[in-house]
Write a structure and sequence with these properties.
Distance between the termini: 32 Å
Strand order of the largest sheet: 2-1-3-4
Largest sheet: 4 strands, mixed
CATH class of the largest domain: Alpha Beta
Radius of gyration: 18 Å
CATH topology of the largest domain: Glutaredoxin
Shape: globular
CATH superfamily of the largest domain: Glutaredoxin
Strand content: 5-15%
Order of helices and strands: EHEHEEHHHHHHHH
Helix content: 55-70%
CATH architecture of the largest domain: 3-Layer(aba) Sandwich
Number of strands: 4
Length: 231
């Protein structure tokens, strides 16, 4: 059994997609990030960065004590090794998957996250910041579109690179993107959206949080964190 500490965000969806694809036994441990549940002491023991998702694997491959992992990319790599799929068959395949996973973790996620913040959530609209992150979003979309011009999936075969990237493209309209301008990306996006496991993963999110949205109090919790929050 895997405990998944989760809230239906793009990073959370990555893990439910993998778990639904593989059928690994898991149970959801909701972490309502708008209410500050990520700062509870018991969660801090599992996720020292006070961020979800995180997992606890109660049946690790070595048969030892439960293994806890935080950071969505690290979780995907661990689960791919555990399940023996979606991480690349050969060393060359693995390198292909992992570089695109790191591209998502280091670029696509953070830049699109800043896009969301300044276009959707910031109390003050800052034109420079909006232009900066909308433009970078477009650049990253173009990189992915070019990558997908001659292949069905990001690393060739379907992999954790696709699972990591797809949830960040789902809110493309809120990112001020016209997905039709990126035809190869759109073809991939539609293929991903039609996968039964992806559909199931998003249904899990609706069950956990039937009324998505962000109140002003939620914003204070999510966007008001400082060094004092950690201390």
């Amino acid at each position: 059994m895997i405990d998944l500490y989760y809230w239906p965000t793009p990073n959370g969806h990555k893990i439910t997609i993998f778990l639904e694809e593989t059928g690994l036994d898991y149970q959801i441990k909701p972490v309502n990030i708008g209410k500050g549940e990520q700062f509870e002491p018991d969660f801090l023991k599992i996720a020292p960065n006070n961020r979800m998702p995180a997992i606890v694997d109660h049946a690790p491959e070595d048969g030892g004590e439960p293994v806890s992992i935080f950071e969505s990319g690290a979780i995907l790599q661990y689960l791919a090794r555990k399940a023996g799929k979606f991480g690349g068959e050969t060393l060359r395949d693995q390198a292909e998957v992992e570089q695109w996973l790191m591209w998502q973790m280091g670029g696509l996620g953070p830049m699109l996250g800043q896009n969301h913040h300044f276009t959707q959530y910031a109390n003050e609209k800052v034109p420079y910041a909006i232009d900066r992150y909308v433009n970078e979003t477009g650049r990253l979309y173009a990189v992915l579109n070019r990558r997908l011009a001659d292949r069905d999936f990001i690393a060739g075969d379907y992999s954790i690179a696709d699972m990591a990237s797809y949830p960040w493209i789902v809110p493309y309209e809120r990112q001020s993107m016209d997905i039709n301008e990126f035809p190869h990306l759109k073809r991939w996006f539609d293929r991903m959206a039609a996968r039964p496991a992806v559909i199931r993963a998003y249904e899990v999110g609706k069950e956990v949080n039937p009324t998505p949205g962000m109140t002003e109090e939620d914003k204070k919790v999510l966007f008001g964190q400082t060094a004092a929050t950690v201390a």
